[in-house]
Amino acid sequence: MITRIVKMNFKASEIDNFLIIFNQSKNEIRNMPGCNHLELWNSQTEATVFYTYSIWDSENDLNNYRNSELFQSVWPATKALFAIKAEASSLNVLFNL
After folding, report:
1. Measured torsion, CA atoms of residues 97, 53, 19, 67, in degrees rounded to the nearest 10
2. Is residue 97, in this structure, part of any structural domain at all?
3. What is the mean pLDDT of each run of 10 residues along the chain (97 residues)?
4. Where are the beta strands (DSSP E) in the chain?
5. SS3 of 70, please?
6. What is the CATH number of the domain that holds 78?
7. Could you tell me if 49 and 9 are in contact, meaning their C-beta atoms sit under 8 angstroms apart?
């Protein structure tokens, strides 16, 4: 299992546009092979900072999503709304309490 967290900092004027993109694509992302979970988080202290939290069966499944037509249409549209470059981390769960 791989946990993927992506931190995105948007231009304030583009938040509504990002939420439209996310809402239109979230079910397709969740239905990608190997995707077990997807959440969107918003910082309590910085309104323009959002995180996606997703859980994938394997690195291969995550890469298949990243190489999919869905990602190729969603990511460039999302990336255009950033105030600064996104930060992404793939993590392994060490303890599940």
Report:
1. -150
2. no
3. 96 98 97 97 98 96 96 96 97 84
4. 2-10, 35-42, 49-56, 82-91
5. helix
6. 3.30.70.100
7. yes
